[in-house]
Structure formats: structure tokens, C-alpha cells
Design a protein that fits this description.
- The complex is a heterotetramer of chains A (323), B (329), C (314) and D (286).
- Chain A has 323 residues and is of the alpha/beta class.
- Chain A has one domain: P-loop containing nucleotide triphosphate hydrolases (Rossmann fold, 3-Layer(aba) Sandwich).
- Helix content of chain A is 29%, strand content 24%.
- In chain A, the strands form two sheets. In chain A, strands 6-7-8-3-9-10-12-11 form an eight-stranded mixed sheet, sandwiched between helices.
- Chain B has a single domain, classed as P-loop containing nucleotide triphosphate hydrolases (Rossmann fold, 3-Layer(aba) Sandwich).
- The two termini of chain B are 32 Å apart.
- In chain B, 50% of the residues are buried.
- The model of chain B has no long low-confidence stretch (mean pLDDT 89).
- The radius of gyration of chain D is 22 Å and the shape is elongated.
- In chain D, 75% of the residues lie in helices and 0% in strands.
- Chain D has eleven helices and no strands.
- Classes of the chains: A alpha/beta (323), B alpha/beta (329), C mainly alpha (314), D mainly alpha (286).
- Chains C and D meet through helix 1, helix 6, helix 7, helix 8 and helix 10 of C and helix 5, helix 6, helix 9, helix 10 and helix 11 of D.
- Chain B: Belongs to the ABC transporter superfamily.
């Protein structure tokens, strides 16, 4: 049984850097630098990492909201990258995006009703009545009321706006949703409401999620498998519990140890990474972490480690674990 | 323990065309000498403006409308709210310093790092230029900046957020203040950089003998850095106690809700705990308890009458009818 | 920084080509042709043929453009239809006068506008601010010819004062020269101060709203330091851009003012040429003024890189 | 139909907000008066604008001729009223020209970026490199002075400003996530432009149009002052003011009336523009 919904192979997304006298392209930001992964049906695959690691660009490249430079994205046995612009546009009813910032992701001049009917009018030829029915269905799902349909986004709180965004994403009944930091802009008490909603919707509508976040606690809660990204690459990937309980890559370990403790009596022993993330324009030779890693060896400066299978679906890109 | 700062019945108003809205309602708390005092709450609860009031940095349309903020330096004790402009200036940066949430915008973009560090010394000391430069260099080294000599000559836009926050700390500590107010100092930073900055602050606190007020929305940051904590909700303190009691003997339903939301997160065996509803909007405060609508332990009285902040155990204050009744009986 | 400046200079080339092409093509839109204007009502085929050869009108369009540009690059703007004199030397001597007027006007506008703009920003929402803002609004609303006419009217009716007639160069007689120039400079400068005032005010207010101002206050800075060291230094940066545009505007604005006050500057030369249908002069002067404008803006941009450390990284 | 009602409601709401502020009220009323004057010019003007009362040349203001008469014995008040009509006409049509081209160029440049953007913007840079009054003067002198050519010239001169405003707003709106959201939902570019971008750039666009209107009226008056705009016998405030200079001492009212009207009209439009900006774009309010 083929349980894979989406398979990404060697995805690269580079942005040109212009400079010099004639504004020629002098280099590339290696935002996403050769990554591969698989997402199973009705599961949640999380991309986790710090700002600038390329997790958001990856999410957007999958939907071709940002055009990837090269690679293969197989979605339901079809290479999405090869679709024409028009075919891709139509495909979007099945692949949707939820945004981080509920304040800027909704057009301030459209009512909730208009915002929700737009995807339907774009992709289906439905009668007004059918559209209305579909809208009623979706607001019930996300916990909005009928009275709120004629209001504008600024009349809602952050949590409610995120509900509107989610409704807009699921109203065309997609099977695949990329959620890009959907709870990062929200307060803790609202965050959990939205996470619960996403989990419920996944069960109800048989959704497959790619969940992008910098918050390791949130990721652990919602995902089945995780890929940890650093400087445009996946450094470690595997089943969520496996990664959280027996992380292998020094970066994953540092990341996990950096999360503040939830109990003042249990002070964690921290692995502190030195310095800052290097520029993605000129990523270092060898392992991208070598300048900051405590266990760096001489080989790390020269040869870039590839993801290697550690068994149980656990892959790590680090020289420490090579024979 | 001796106190360095005593806030008594502080009120802060937002001036609008339709009259004033009370954003901070009779807040009182004390910060001990060399203590790390945490203020935690969600956005809009009034934690940041309280900090600004301590520095007398509130600007129109915000203003303090009552209360006292008593600061006890080695020489004298003063009520900050009654100080004149030129008097508070001698305290800012010298006795009390502050660092802010967004290091990227907190420094003047057209001056070098060196000039901005020296500026603080210029206001409060009579050192000559050479000595000030030396001190700036020493300070940068203390906050763990690599190639400090070069960085001194650079401009803010050339540095990363983590570096800039270190520089902000250097500026704040260069006159050896007695109290450091940190307003969400790591919120804009990545976790690994946050870990660096929190470590640095804990370390400098001991070597500089300063008290710290740590303002944050993140209970994790509180657990890592603070000794005593006040939980703010909708412009009031709802619970205040030492950090261990707060986490292990939580009294207020809001605090325990927040903690449960955080601790159940990541643990898939438990359902994710949620607090339903949302914070009442400023200016439309209910007449009873401000948390009543969202509370899972509410009683009849909660809707009608606002509870007071009372001491429910030694050094543990809570604003909730659950405990007020037991006190009465 | 150097690469930025070089790029900025290289970017000028297409703009300058565009400008000259634009002027050249607009000239082709003249109804009928240039010579008809010159000949007047009497049609004289012989004279026409002479003129066609003299001005090279028998050549194809691209060649005429290239010839014109090559000559211009050598400093040869051709000769006037009317006077047969070389255009370039005349233009240069008149430019000196316009330049003097522009500088005087600009200085007057800065002296009025920058302090008032700052005061207005610092006293925001007080009556001082309201008054300054109204003056600034008047400045951007009153056409300079209306102001000039009213000013002359007022001076003559009230004080029986008439500005001296007959232009005298600055180095011939500085006192008389200044007497002649001061009124037009006041007119241009006062009008221009409106936009500078508005810009100064909003720019200073913008800086005062920035986060870093709070940091500076938190360090214990006095209001004097906050305003004069930080708010002004930051706030005056965008005003430099405005000054560039302002000087360009002045070069255009002098057309009318020079006309009203009979100042023999570049503006008057253009206007006379337009009225006399002296097209080579019109063409030359417009190109020259546009060139000066572009150069002023270039200088402003380069100046920018020195005042604002962020610019080179853009 | 429902949309039209919505739009009208929106406009009424904006006017209400304008009238709340005393300064906005002045601007609004000023513009309102000018508009009334120009619409009802034939009804308001007591005399024909070309009628010459040969016996009463250069008569000072009195009950019969409230603003006096000029050197041909024409009624100044009537000419001023018709002048309002001409000014407004030139203003509206020339702003219409520049707004239309500016919108199209700005949308195309801002939305599609790349080569198209470079070409359009370099062209605008070229137009921008001329002091605006000089470019208008140049175009009019080449095309020949007339009402129509004045409008065309002013229209061309103002196009770059509109293009830049529109382009800048399109770029800033485009960076908002709701545009990415519209793309990710699968909207066609034309729908994104019409339904998502256009409504959100309307505010700066309207403000720009109001301010450009005052600029256009000013430029027209300047051209006419120099004798290169509206041609006689059509009345224009600029040419009336220019004419008045010959009779400055004998008949100062000839100068004062048009000068006051020019200043008040431009001032009203500028005040209205400023207040509109405060209402529509509160972020810019300082």
C-alpha cells in the first residue's frame, strides 16, 4: 500500500543576490539547499528550525508560491514542478497554505463572507446557494458564527482571525495543507485553542499537514515526524518521539536543550552554540554547523555530511555517526 | 530582604477622545535588592507599560494617574513619579537601566556602537574620552562580543539581533546600575540565541550585583531566570509568589491554566489544555472578576464582585474568590 | 561605497540619453515645421531651401539626432534662429545669474523652513504648530507669480518702492545686484519653504517615534541631546533629497520669477525663445536645465552615502 | 447595485469623518464652493464674459460690478466665476489623464517587476528629470497654446508622480501576506490586481489625486500667466493676473481678485488632500 502523499526530492530554492557596478547576479542565497523527504497521508510532517533556516521557503516552494530552482515534488503521483502555471493554479484547490500572521494574511477590505467565498468562486462553478451552504459548513467547523460573516478582519481578535484563515484554507476541501507558523503570533492561551482546532480538523477531513514552526514544544505535540533544518538543509529527520528522546545531531541537541525549562526546580544542562548562523549566501564548506559545533572534527570543515540512515526511519547528517 | 523598588497602587491611563481608559489598575509589588523579579502575562496585560512607568518613560497618550514608585538607592529614597525631568534623568541609565524587545530597532542607526555605549558614560561620569573608550571595550568583552575592537567601530545594521542585544546589555550595565529592567529581551530572538542571552544575564546579575525585573510572556524564561514572580492579567496582578511555589503550588485559575497549556504541550498522552475565550478588551472591564468569563472554577460571586489581591500563604498573594472565602470563614 | 557611486553615475547615461531623445522627439511634434515659423507668413522657396540645408533638415531623423548630440557633447549647442549667435556661451552667462538666484532662494527657504519645521515638530498639537503648519500650507499653495504680483503691488502702493530696473552683475556692483535679486529670491525662497517645513516637521516626528529614542532616553539623555544629536541628525537625512528636488524646482520656477522681475537668467532666455519660436535655443536650454537637475540629484545621492551609513548596504 | 450602495456609504462615511475635523471642514467647504461656482457659472455670473462696457473701463468695485471692470470694460466678477470653471476643468481632465496612465503603468511595473518595471520606471525617470513647469511649458510651446494642449501637457507632466505612487503602493501591498494567500488559493493575476491590490491602494491614490488637482490648477495658472496656457478671450485666473500688471497702480483690484481666488482654490484642495490623507491613511498622520 502506498501511503505517501507527497515526496520531495532534491528540492533547491535559490535567490539571486545582485551587486557590483552593473547589478549583476553575484551569488545566490541558498535558502533551500537540496532537501528530500516524504509525507504520509493524514499525518503531520513538521519542519523545525530557527529563523532563516529555510523552513518557510520550503513550505512555499512546495506550493510554488515561491518558484523552486530545481528538484522534484511528487504529489499524488504527479510532479508539481512540471505543471504549467495554469495547471498549478487549478491544483491549488487541493494544496493550501495557512499563514503565521493573522493580521496581514487577510485582506482588510473584504468581509469574512467574501474571503470565504473567494476560493469557491475561483475553483468551482457553484450556485450562490451552494456557496452559502459550504460557508455555513466551514464556519461551524472552525467555530465562527453566522453573525460574524458580514464583519471585516479588523473586527476580530488574533485567534479568531486565525480561525478565518483556516476556514479559507479548508473550504475548498484540500487534502494537503502547509501551515506556516500558524500559532507563533498568538498568546499561549489562544495558541492551544488553535492547535486543538487543527488536530480536530485533521481527523475530520483526513488532512495531511506540513507544519512549520520554530517552537519545539508545539512541534512535538502536533507532528508524527520531524525534519530539523539548518541553513537550508535537513540535518536530522525521523519520527517525532525518536527525535525528541534520542536526538543525534549536535544541532538538534543544542536546539532541544535551549528550550527553556518548564520547571524552576529542574534546571537543564545547556549546550550553548557559539556565535550566529553563517550567511546563506556563502554557506561554509563542509558541514554547515562546523564553526559553531562543540564536537567539530577536521573532516567537518572539508566534507559535507549527507543524511545517513540510522535505522527506524531516523536519518542524521553528521560525521560523528559515520563508520 | 531590603527592597530596591516599591511600587504602590500604580495606575496607568490611556487618554482617548472618549475619556480615559484604565490600563493598569492599582498594581503594587516590591523588588528586593539583588533579586530577579519576573512579570509574566499575555499581550495587552500591561506588563510593559508598568516597566516604562518605572523609568518615567511613558509618553502621550499614556500617563500615570496615581500611586507611588519608590526607589531606594544607596544614597537616598525617592518616589520616581514625583521627580522632575532633570532629576529622573540622573537615575535613568545610572541607577536603573532598561533593555527592550527589538534589538534591531533599539539603537540609533547612524552612530557607531562605540558612540552609543560612550553616550551613557558621558551623561553620568566625568571620564575623559580615552577612559570611556577603554570602558566600552571592556564592557563589550564582558558581554561576550568577539572581535570587540572592530565591532566598536561598526554600525547597528551590520550586526545580528543576538549581537545587538548583547550590546544593549553592555549599554545598560556600563554605569553599574542597581536595577535592570528587561522588557521581553529574548522574544525577538531564536531559541539558541535566547539561551545565550539568558545565560549571559544570569551570569552578569551575579557579577554586577544588580536586581533584575524580567518582563516576559514566556513561563519558561521565568522558570530559568527569576526568584519571585507576579502574574498580570488585564491590568492587574492576579498572583504573586516565589517561582517554585508558582510552578508547584499554583493558586490562581489563570496561572494554572497557563501552566497547563504549556506543560500539556509536547506531551501527546495528554490532551492539550486550553483556556477558552479571550481577554476582555481594555476599557470594557467587567464589574466582577476579570477572568470570570474564561474561568473553569467560577462561582456566583465572581460575576458580581471583583476579588482583592490577598495573602493566602506566607509570601503568596492571589486575587481569587476561591481563597477569599476560606480567609473569611 | 565606491561601487555604489560608480553605479549611480553609470545609471545616469541611459537617463541622459532618454532626456535628449525625449526633447528631440517632442521637437518633431511641432505642427508644420520649424522653418515655417522662421519664415513668417511669406513663403519663400529659395530661402526655405537655404534654411533646410543650414539646419540639416534634409538629413534622416536618426542622423540629425546623432549629429545634434555629438555637437552638444563638444559644447556646441548650435546657433540661434533669431540672432545667429552661438547658444552655449549665452546660456552659460545667463546660467550664472539663475544660479545666484537659486542659491539665494534656497538659503532663504532653509533659514525660514528648517527651524520652523523643527519647532513645529517639537511643539506638536499646540497653537505654535498650527500656525507653522498653516504657513507651510500657504507656501505650497500660493503660486510664486501670485505672490510676486501681490508683493510688488503692496510695496508700490504702501511704500512707493520699485525694484531697480536694468540688471547689474554681482561683480560689477554687488549692492545694486543684491537689491535687484533680493525680491525675486524672497519670493522663490518663501514659496519653497512650505514644502521644506512640512518635510522637516514630519521627518523629525518620524524619528521621535522610533524605538531607539526610548533607548536614548533610558540612558539618561536630556531632551536637548535627544533632539539635537539624535532626532535632528536622523531627521535631516531625508531633507537632503528634498533639497535636490527643490533646486530642480527652483530652476523651473525661475522662469516665471525672472520674467516678472526682468532678470536676464536662463528662464527668461527659454521664455523669450519660446515666444519667438527660436527652437534651437529652446531645445538647448531645456536639455541644459534637465542636465543640471540630474547632476544636482546625483550629488545629493552621493552626499547621502556619507551621512547615512546604511545606504551602501542596500 | 449592492456594491454601488456600499461605495456610496463609504464615501458618505469619509465625508463625515472629514467634517469632524475643523480644518478638514474648511478644505471640504472651500472645494465645494469652487465646484458650485463652476457648475452654476452661467447662472451666477451677472454679465457675459466678453461683453465690453466701453463707458466703464477700469471701474473700481461697486454695486454694479462687484469686483470692478478691466481695461476693456469687462466685468471682473463674471470672468472670475468662469475662470473657476476653466481651472477646474483643466484640473480634472489633466489629473484624469495622468491618473489613468499612472495607474496602468504603476500597476504593471509594480506587479510584474523585472524588465517591464525597469523600462517603465526609466522612462518615468526621464520625465521626472525635467522641472515640471518647464516640461509643461516645453510641451505646450511645441503643440501650440490652447485649452486642450494645456490639459495634455499637464497630464503628461503629472504622470510620473502617479506612476511612482501607484507602484510604491502596489509593491508594499504585494508584500502583504494576503496577496500570497490569494495566490496560494489559486486566483488569477487579473483578479488579484482588481480585487486585492486595487482596493488597498485606493487610499494613497485618492490622496495623490486630490493633491495633483491642486498642482494641476497651479500649473495651468502659471502657463496662462506666461501667455502659454488658456488663450483669450477665455478667462483664466493666470492670464487675468498677468494682464493686471499693466494697470497695477490704477486698478489694483484687477490683481487682487484673481490672486485671491487662485490662492484660495489651491489652498482648499491642499487642505482637503491633507485631511483625506489623515482619514484614509491614518498611519501617515503625525
Amino acid at each position: 500500500m502506498n501511503n505517501v502523499l507527497l515526496e520531495v526530492e532534491n528540492l533547491k530554492t535559490y535567490f539571486p543576490v545582485k551587486g557590483g557596478v552593473l547589478k549583476k547576479t553575484t551569488g545566490y542565497v541558498h535558502a533551500v539547499d537540496d532537501i528530500s523527504f516524504k509525507v504520509n497521508k493524514q499525518e503531520t510532517f513538521a519542519l523545525v528550525g530557527e529563523s532563516g533556516c529555510g523552513k518557510s521557503t520550503t513550505g512555499r516552494s512546495l506550493l510554488r508560491v515561491i518558484e523552486p530552482t530545481s528538484g522534484k515534488i511528487t504529489f499524488r503521483n504527479e510532479d508539481v514542478i512540471r505543471l504549467s502555471k495554469e495547471e498549478m493554479r487549478k491544483k491549488r484547490k487541493d494544496m493550501q497554505l495557512i499563514f503565521q500572521n493573522p493580521y496581514s494574511s487577510l485582506n482588510p477590505r473584504m468581509t469574512v463572507n467574501k474571503l470565504l467565498s473567494e476560493p469557491l468562486r475561483t475553483h468551482f462553478s457553484m450556485s450562490q446557494k451552494e456557496i452559502e451552504e459550504q460557508i455555513l459548513w466551514v464556519i461551524d467547523k472552525v467555530g465562527l458564527t453566522k453573525e460574524q460573516l458580514d464583519r471585516y478582519p479588523h473586527q476580530f481578535s488574533g485567534g479568531q482571525r486565525q480561525r478565518i484563515s483556516i476556514a479559507r484554507a479548508i473550504i475548498s476541501k484540500p487534502s494537503f495543507v502547509v501551515a506556516d507558523e500558524p500559532v507563533s503570533a498568538l498568546d499561549v492561551s489562544i495558541q492551544s485553542q488553535i492547535l486543538n482546532l487543527l488536530i480536530e480538523l485533521q481527523k475530520d477531513l483526513k488532512l495531511t499537514y506540513i507544519f512549520i514552526s520554530h517552537d519545539l514544544n508545539v512541534v512535538r505535540h502536533i507532528s508524527n515526524s520531524v525534519a530539523v533544518m539548518y541553513l537550508g538543509r535537513i540535518v536530522e529527520t525521523g519520527d517525532t518521539e525518536q527525535i525528541y528522546t534520542s536526538a543525534m545531531h549536535p544541532y538538534t541537541k543544542a536546539l532541544l536543550s535551549a528550550v527553556p525549562s518548564k520547571d524552576p526546580l529542574q534546571k537543564k544542562k545547556r549546550i550553548i552554540l557559539k556565535g550566529d548562523v553563517p550567511s546563506p549566501v556563502n554557506p561554509p564548506n563542509g558541514c554547515p554547523l562546523n564553526s559553531r559545533c562543540e564536537s567539530a572534527m577536521s573532516i567537518c570543515k572539508e566534507i559535507r555530511p549527507e543524511l545517513a540512515d540510522m535505522g527506524n526511519n531516523h536519518h542524521v547528517a553528521c560525521h560523528l555517526y559515520k563508520e | 530582604m531590603e527592597n530596591i523598588l516599591e511600587v504602590k497602587n500604580l495606575n496607568i491611563d490611556l487618554i482617548t477622545e472618549k475619556g480615559n481608559k484604565k490600563l493598569i489598575d492599582n498594581v503594587s509589588f516590591n523588588v528586593g535588592k539583588k533579586q530577579s523579579y519576573g512579570i509574566v502575562g499575555e499581550s495587552g496585560c500591561g506588563k510593559s507599560i508598568t516597566a516604562l512607568a518605572v523609568m518615567q518613560l511613558l509618553s502621550f497618550p499614556l500617563k500615570t494617574s496615581g500611586g507611588e514608585i519608590n526607589f531606594h538607592s544607596e544614597k537616598e529614597s525617592v518616589n520616581i513619579l514625583s521627580l522632575k525631568k532633570n532629576e529622573i534623568r540622573k537615575i535613568r541609565g545610572k541607577e536603573i537601566s532598561m533593555i527592550f524587545q527589538e534589538p534591531m530597532t533599539a539603537l540609533d542607526p547612524i552612530f557607531t556602537i562605540e558612540r552609543q555605549i560612550i553616550e551613557a558614560l558621558k551623561f553620568h561620569t566625568d571620564l575623559n574620552k580615552k577612559d570611556m573608550s577603554d570602558m566600552a571595550l571592556q564592557m563589550l568583552k564582558k558581554v561576550g562580543i568577539p572581535r570587540a575592537e572592530e565591532i566598536l567601530k561598526e554600525y547597528p545594521h551590520q550586526l545580528s539581533g543576538g549581537m545587538l542585544q548583547r550590546i544593549m546589555i553592555a549599554i545598560a550595565l556600563i554605569c553599574k546600575p542597581k536595577l535592570l529592567i528587561a522588557d521581553e529581551p529574548t522574544t525577538a530572538l531564536d531559541v539558541t540565541i535566547q539561551a545565550q542571552i539568558l545565560d549571559l544575564m544570569n551570569e552578569l546579575k551575579t557579577s554586577f550585583d544588580t536586581s533584575i525585573i524580567m518582563i516576559t510572556h514566556d513561563l519558561g524564561v521565568i522558570a530559568e531566570t527569576c526568584e519571585k514572580v507576579a502574574v498580570f492579567y488585564a491590568g492587574q496582578i492576579v498572583e504573586e509568589t516565589d517561582v517554585v511555589t508558582l510552578f508547584h503550588n499554583t493558586a490562581h485559575p489563570y496561572t494554572s491554566g497557563l501552566l497547563k497549556a504549556v506543560t500539556s504541550l509536547g506531551d501527546k498522552s495528554k490532551n492539550l489544555f486550553t483556556i477558552p475565550g479571550m481577554v476582555p478588551a481594555g476599557g470594557h472591564m467587567p464589574k466582577g472578576c476579570r477572568f470570570e468569563e474564561r474561568c473553569n472554577k467560577k462561582m456566583k460571586i465572581c460575576k458580581d464582585k471583583s476579588p482583592e489581591l490577598i495573602e493566602i500563604a506566607d509570601g503568596h498573594k492571589c486575587r481569587c474568590w476561591l481563597y477569599a472565602e476560606s480567609g473569611d470563614n | 561605497m565606491r561601487s555604489y557611486i560608480i553605479r549611480r553615475i553609470l545609471m545616469l547615461i541611459p537617463v541622459l540619453i532618454g532626456i535628449s531623445l525625449c526633447i528631440f522627439l517632442i521637437m518633431q511634434l511641432i505642427p508644420g515645421d520649424v522653418i515655417s515659423g522662421l519664415l513668417g507668413i511669406e513663403e519663400n522657396p529659395e530661402l526655405r531651401a537655404q534654411y533646410v540645408i543650414k539646419f540639416g533638415l534634409d538629413q534622416p531623423l536618426p542622423k540629425r539626432y546623432i549629429d545634434w548630440i555629438t555637437n552638444v557633447l563638444k559644447g556646441d549647442f548650435g546657433t540661434s534662429f533669431r540672432t545667429d549667435k552661438e547658444i552655449f556661451p549665452e546660456m552659460m552667462s545667463r546660467f550664472k545669474i539663475t544660479f545666484q538666484l537659486t542659491i539665494m532662494a534656497a538659503m532663504i527657504s532653509w533659514i525660514i523652513a528648517i527651524p520652523l519645521g523643527i519647532i513645529s515638530a517639537l511643539k506638536r498639537n499646540t497653537w505654535v504648530d498650527a500656525v507653522v503648519r498653516f504657513i507651510a500650507l500657504l507656501g505650497v499653495s500660493v503660486p510664486n507669480f501670485a505672490f510676486a504680483t501681490l508683493l510688488i503691488l503692496f510695496l508700490s502702493l504702501k511704500f512707493q518702492y520699485y525694484p531697480p530696473v536694468g540688471y547689474v552683475g554681482f561683480f560689477e556692483n554687488a549692492k545694486v545686484n543684491l537689491q535687484i535679486m533680493i525680491l525675486p529670491a524672497i519670493v522663490l525662497g518663501t514659496i519653497m519653504s512650505g514644502s521644506v517645513m512640512r518635510m522637516t516637521r514630519s521627518s523629525v516626528l518620524e524619528v521621535l517615534r522610533q524605538d531607539f529614542i526610548k533607548t536614548i532616553r533610558a540612558k539618561g539623555a536630556s531632551e536637548r541631546v535627544v533632539i539635537f544629536v539624535h532626532a535632528l541628525r536622523n531627521g535631516l537625512i531625508p531633507i537632503i533629497t528634498l533639497i535636490g528636488m527643490q533646486i530642480g524646482g527652483l530652476l523651473g520656477g525661475t522662469v516665471i520669477t525672472e520674467q516678472i522681475f526682468s532678470i536676464p537668467g536662463l528662464g527668461q532666455m527659454v521664455l523669450t525663445a519660446i515666444n519667438q519660436r527660436d527652437y534651437p535655443v529652446v531645445q538647448g536650454c531645456i536639455l541644459f536645465i534637465a542636465f543640471i537637475y540630474v547632476m544636482v540629484n546625483l550629488i545629493v545621492d552621493i552626499l547621502y552615502t556619507y551621512v547615512d551609513p546604511r545606504i551602501t548596504y542596500k | 447595485m449592492k456594491n454601488i450602495i456600499e461605495i456610496l456609504k463609504g464615501i458618505i462615511n469619509i465625508i463625515k469623518q472629514l467634517l469632524k475635523d475643523p480644518i478638514g471642514r474648511i478644505g471640504f467647504i472651500g472645494v465645494f464652493i469652487i465646484v458650485l461656482l463652476s457648475i452654476f457659472a452661467p447662472k451666477i455670473a451677472p454679465y457675459d464674459i466678453t461683453e465690453m462696457f466701453t463707458k466703464s473701463k477700469l471701474v473700481s468695485p461697486n454695486g454694479e460690478f462687484i469686483f470692478g471692470t478691466d481695461n476693456f470694460g469687462r466685468d471682473v466678477f463674471s470672468r472670475i466665476i468662469y475662470g473657476a470653471k476653466v481651472s477646474l476643468q483643466v484640473g480634472i481632465i489633466s489629473v484624469g489623464i495622468s491618473a489613468t496612465f499612472g495607474y496602468i503603468f504603476g500597476i504593471v511595473a509594480g506587479y510584474f517587476e523585472g524588465v517591464v518595471d525597469s523600462i517603465i520606471m526609466r522612462f518615468m525617470d526621464v520625465l521626472f528629470a525635467f522641472p515640471s513647469i518647464l516640461l509643461a511649458l516645453f510641451i505646450v510651446s511645441v503643440l501650440g497654446p490652447s485649452l486642450g494642449n494645456t490639459m495634455i501637457a499637464i497630464g503628461i507632466v503629472n504622470t510620473p508622480v502617479f506612476t511612482r505612487t501607484v507602484r510604491a503602493s502596489v509593491i508594499s501591498v504585494k508584500s502583504m501576506e494576503y496577496i500570497t494567500s490569494a495566490k496560494s488559493i489559486g486566483l488569477k493575476p487579473i483578479n488579484i490586481i482588481l480585487k486585492h491590490i486595487t482596493p488597498n491602494i485606493l487610499a494613497p491614490f485618492t490622496v495623490q489625486a486630490t493633491l495633483a488637482l491642486s498642482g494641476a490648477i497651479l500649473t495651468e495658472a502659471s502657463l496662462s500667466f506666461l501667455g502659454l496656457g488658456i488663450q483669450p478671450p477665455d478667462p483664466s485666473w493666470g492670464s487675468m493676473l498677468s494682464e493686471s500688471r499693466k494697470y497695477m497702480e490704477r486698478a489694483p483690484w484687477l490683481a487682487i481678485a484673481p490672486a485671491v481666488f487662485i490662492i484660495c482654490t489651491i489652498l482648499s484642495f491642499n487642505i482637503l488632500g491633507d485631511s483625506l490623507r489623515d482619514v484614509l491613511d491614518p498611519k501617515l498622520k503625525l
